[in-house]
TrEMBL record:
It is a multi-pass membrane protein. This is O-acyltransferase. Keywords: Acyltransferase, Endoplasmic reticulum, Membrane, Transferase, Transmembrane, Transmembrane helix. Belongs to the membrane-bound acyltransferase family. Sterol o-acyltransferase subfamily. Pathway: Lipid metabolism. GO terms for cellular component: endoplasmic reticulum membrane. The keyword GTP-binding does not apply. The gene is 6037904. InterPro entries: MBOAT_fam (IPR004299), Oat_ACAT_DAG_ARE (IPR014371). One of its GO terms (biological process) is triglyceride biosynthetic process. It holds the Pfam family MBOAT. It is found in: Endoplasmic reticulum membrane. The chain crosses the membrane at residues 58-77, 98-119, 125-146, 252-271, 302-320, 425-446.
C-alpha cells in the first residue's frame, strides 16, 4: 500500500502536469509514466548488479574464477591424506596428518583474506555490488571447505580408532539411515562401524549404494556439495528421485518477478529515506534522526522480509530441486520466537546447523563451558557480519560486529520479558530488535561511507 501511494504521488507530481491537451503525444506520456511514475530503470539496475562500471580487468569476475584454486587444493590435500602418501616420503602418518591440517588451515584462512586484500589494494576498480558478491562467495566457500575438511578428518579418525563410534562423527544423514533400513529390510545386512555397508548384492537398483570414505574424494562430489543449498558436508546427501517441473517453475517465477519487485521498491522507497537521513545523523539531531529512523524502518523491514522469502524459500528450493537435494529445511517459524535465542536458531538453518556442528559441539567436546561456546559462536558470526559489510564498503567500522555481540545481552532481556511478562512480550522484543536495529545500522554505515569517500564533495556542496 505504501509503495502504491508513492506511485500515485509520482503520477500526480510528474505525469499529470505533463499531460498533453491532445492525443498526439501519447508516447511521451507513456515514457514519462515509466520514467517518473514507476521510477525503475532496468538498464541502471543491470549496470549496478553486473558491475559493468568496474575498472579494467573486471576484478570481481577474476576473483570469482580464482575461487577454483582453493577448492582444488583442498581436494588434492585430502587425497594425499587418504592414501599412503607417508610411505613415499618416509614420514609418519601423524606427521603427514599434521602437515595436511596446516595446509588446510592456511588455505581456508587465505580464502577469507583474499577479498580483503584485493578490495583494499584495488578498491577503486571494484563496483559495490561486485565486491559484495565476491565477499559473499568467499564467505560461503570458507564455511563449506571448513565442513568438508572436518568431516573427512572425522572419517579418518573413525577408520583408525577401535570400538563404538559416535554417530555424529560418521556424517550420517537421514537419507543414509533410510537407505540402510531398506537394505536391511530386504537383504538382512548389517552396518559397519565406519558408516553403513553398501549392499552390492541388492537387486533393487533404485536404491544407490552408499559412499564410504575415501571413495567420496573426487571432484564431482565436492562440486555437488559446493553447489548444494547446505553448508554442512555429508558423504551421502538425501536425494530426490525426480525434478518436479511445476514446483521448479513456481520457484523460478518467484525469484525473477520477486527480485524485480524488490528492486523497484528499494529504488523508489528505501534509497530516498536513506539519503535523507545523512544530514540529521551528521548534525546529531536526535529528534529528526529518530523520525528518519522510524521512516526507514518500514521499507527496510519490508525489503528484509522479501529478501528472506526470495533467498530461503524461493532460491534455495530452486537450487535444491535442480540438484535433487532433498533436505529442504532452510528455516523454521522464527516469526514466533519468544526470545532472541530461538530466533537465531530458526531463521537461518544452514548457518545455524554449521555453527552447532562445526563450532559449538567441537568446543563442548574439548571441555569448554556452554556459555563460552555460545559467546564464541556469536563472536564468529559477528566477525562475518562485519566482514560482509565493511570490506565491500571499504569503510572499516564495527557497527555490524557490535550489533551481533549486542544479541547476547539482548538475549537475557528477551528471556526476562518472556519469563515475567509472557511469551507475547518476548516475541515483541524480538520483532522490535529486527525492525529498529537494521535501519539504525544502515544509517550509520551510510553516514560513515559518505564521510569516508565523499567528504570533500559534501563540504563543497555545503559551502556553496
Amino acid at each position: 500500500m505504501g509503495g502504491f501511494r508513492l506511485v500515485l504521488e509520482n503520477l500526480i507530481k510528474y505525469v499529470a502536469s505533463l499531460m498533453p491537451p491532445g492525443y498526439v503525444q501519447v508516447v511521451t506520456v507513456l515514457f514519462d509514466l515509466v520514467r517518473y511514475g514507476i521510477r525503475v530503470d532496468p538498464v541502471q539496475w543491470f549496470v549496478v548488479l553486473t558491475g559493468k562500471g568496474e575498472g579494467e580487468g573486471y576484478p570481481s569476475l577474476a576473483l570469482v574464477l580464482y575461487s577454483v584454486i582453493p577448492v582444488v587444493l583442498c581436494l588434492v590435500v585430502e587425497k594425499c591424506l587418504a592414501k599412503d602418501t607417508h610411505l613415499m616420503f618416509g614420514i609418519s602418518t601423524t606427521t603427514l596428518e599434521n602437515v595436511g591440517m596446516v595446509v588446510h588451515v592456511i588455505n581456508i584462512i587465505v580464502v577469507v583474506l583474499i577479498p580483503m586484500v584485493f578490495i583494499h589494494v584495488r578498491g577503486h576498480t571494484f563496483s559495490l555490488v561486485g565486491a559484495m558478491a565476491v565477499c559473499f562467495l568467499y564467505c560461503i566457500l570458507f564455511l563449506k571447505l571448513w565442513s568438508y575438511v572436518q568431516v573427512n578428518m572425522w572419517c579418518r579418525a573413525n577408520l583408525k580408532q577401535r570400538g563404538p563410534r559416535k554417530l555424529r562423527r560418521q556424517s550420517v544423514s537421514i537419507g543414509v539411515i533410510q537407505n540402510e533400513r531398506e537394505h536391511n529390510g530386504s537383504n538382512g545386512t548389517n552396518g559397519t562401524a565406519n558408516g553403513f555397508r553398501p549392499n552390492s548384492d541388492s537387486k533393487d537398483k533404485a536404491i544407490p549404494d552408499l559412499v564410504l570414505y575415501p571413495n567420496n574424494l573426487h571432484l564431482k562430489d565436492l562440486l555437488y556439495f559446493l553447489l548444494a543449498p547446505t553448508l554442512c558436508y555429508e558423504l551421502n546427501f538425501p536425494r530426490t528421485s525426480r525434478i518436479r517441473k511445476r514446483f521448479l517453475i513456481k520457484r523460478l517465477l518467484e525469484v525473477v518477478i520477486g527480485w524485480h519487485i524488490v528492486m523497484g521498491l528499494f529504488q523508489q522507497w528505501m534509497i530516498p529515506s536513506v539519503r535523507n537521513s545523512l544530514i540529521p545523523f551528521s548534525n546529531m539531531d536526535l529528534t529528526k534522526t529518530s523520525e528518519r529512523l522510524l521512516k526507514l524502518a518500514i521499507p527496510n523491514h519490508l525489503m528484509w522480509l522479501c529478501f528472506f522469502y526470495l533467498t530461503f524459500h524461493s532460491f534455495l528450493n530452486l537450487m535444491g530441486e535442480v540438484l535433487h537435494f532433498a533436505d529442504r529445511k532452510f528455516y523454521n517459524d522464527w516469526w514466533n520466537a519468544n526470545n532472541i535465542d530461538i530466533f537465531w536458531r530458526n531463521w537461518n538453518m544452514p548457518v545455524h546447523n554449521w555453527c552447532v556442528r562445526h563450532l559449538y559441539l567441537p568446543m563442548i567436546d574439548l571441555g569448554c563451558p556452554k556459555q563460552a561456546a555460545t559467546v564464541t559462536v556469536f563472536f564468529f558470526s559477528a566477525f562475518f557480519h562485519e566482514y560482509l559489510v565493511s570490506v565491500p564498503l571499504k569503510t572499516f567500522k564495527i557497527w555490524a560486529f557490535m550489533g551481533m555481540m549486542a544479541q547476547i545481552p539482548l538475549s537475557f532481556v528477551s528471556k526476562f520479558m518472556e519469563r515475567h511478562y509472557g511469551p507475547r512480550l518476548g516475541n515483541t522484543v524480538v520483532w522490535a530488535s529486527i525492525i529498529l536495529g537494521q535501519p539504525l545500522a544502515i544509517m550509520m554505515y551510510y553516514h560513515d561511507y559518505m564521510i569516508t569517500h565523499y567528504n570533500d564533495e559534501l563540504l563543497l556542496n555545503g559551502a556553496t
